[in-house]
Amino acid sequence: PRVSQPSVKIPVALTIAGSDSGGGAGVQADLRTFAFHCVHGTSALTCITAQNTLSVTRVDALPPESVIAQIDAVVNDIGADAIKTGMLLNAEIMAVVAERLQSYHCDRLVVDPVMVSRTGVCLIDDEAIATLRDRLIPQATVLTPNRYEAQILAKQEIHTLDDMKAAAETIFKLGSQAVLIKGGGMRGKLCGVDVWFDGETLEVLRTETVGTHHTHGTGCTISAAMTANLALKQSPLEATKQAKIYLTQALHHALAIGEGQGPVGHYF
Ligand code: PLP
Questions:
Q1: Is position 219 annotated as part of the catalytic site?
Q2: pTM attached to this predicted model
Q3: Residue nearest to atom 2 of ligand 1 (CA)
Q4: Is 141 a catalytic site residue?
Q5: I need a labelling partner for 63 at 20 to 30 A (CA). Which of 24, 169, 183, 246 fits?
Q6: Of all atoms in ligand 1, which is nearest to the CA of residue 87?
Q7: Nearest to residue 133, comparing CAs of 118, 155, 117, 156?
Q8: Span 59-116, pLDDT tens digits
Q9: Count of C-beta atoms within a 10 Å radius of residue 175
């Protein structure tokens, strides 16, 4: 009997990030976001978190050799139209990831510089911040710091829209092709206002504010949606604008699961 072999050409995106056992952020959010965009997702895990909607109870880093092996395995065979990095956890992992990305000459790379949670808690040490700044950020197509990460990278306080604009211009000098400072964690009128700077265009991107406290995974989701859109060959600014629309929908469909802060939803 003849076997029919359906074959589908599909863009591929790779996420290099941590596992969130609660399924709300990290690699789990990235793969759901890629799937929603009809982009095939591959992954290289950097660390494993034990967490739920209430707290993170444990974080285990994977050996850097394991991270490299995962990246090599998927990129050498399947390829990657776009790549994102999320939580890289420590300087050792960052250094090997930066080295590998450099050797692949990845030209569609979203770097989510996961350093500080949206609530302001620092997640990585000074050596890791320096490695991120010096070795990974210069390779990024778009860098997506939240307010606190932007404060560290720009070495300034951020309270107003003018502060966000000034920080975007300072951070741009670290070498990424574009910077998106996310205002999701800002209070009042600036919540949901992001600032884009690519060396020429300084744009304030606004969306409605969605009133939900189930916002876990927002940072991962927007950078993953940007990566999916880059894999679909959108320009970086268009990819970012479309990703913002996706995140707004995901916030509207946030999940009231668990007893604490639920994640944004990808089921709509
Ligand atoms: N990556 C992992 C593995 C995480 O556990 C978290 C937060 O818990 C994040 C990234 C950042 O999450 P968010 O998208 O809420 O900024």
A1: yes
A2: 0.95
A3: 26
A4: no
A5: 24
A6: 1
A7: 155
A8: 999 999 999 999 999 999 999 999 999 999 999 999 999 999 999 988 999 999 998 7
A9: 14
Structure tokens at 206: 């606004």
Q: How many CB atoms lie within 10 A of CB 176?
A: 25
CA-proximal residue: ligand 1, atom 7 (nearest):
25
| Cα(237) to centroid(ligand 1), Å | 23
Nearest Cα neighbor of 239 from 39, 17, 40 is: 39
At residue 47, the pLDDT reads 96
pLDDT tops 70 at residue 119: no
**Probe residue for ligand 1, chosen from 31, 47, 56, 114 as the CB with the greatest number of ligand atoms within 8 Å:** 114
CB atoms within 10 A of CB 235: 11
Q: Is 221 a catalytic residue?
A: no
- Which amino acid makes up residue 175? G
For helices 91-104 and 64-77, what crossing angle results, to 10°? 20
The 10s digit of each residue's pLDDT in 200-259 is: 999 999 998 898 999 999 999 999 999 999 999 999 999 999 999 999 999 999 999 999
Q: Say which CATH superfamily domain 12-145+216-252 falls into.
A: Ribokinase (3.40.1190.20)
| Residue 57 designated active-site | no
| pLDDT tens digits along 8-66 | 899 999 999 999 999 999 999 999 999 999 999 999 999 999 999 999 999 999 999 99
Q: How far is CA 112 from CA 87, 117, 252, in A?
A: 8, 12, 23
Helical spans, DSSP H, in the chain? 26-36, 64-77, 91-104, 126-131, 147-154, 161-172, 218-231, 236-252
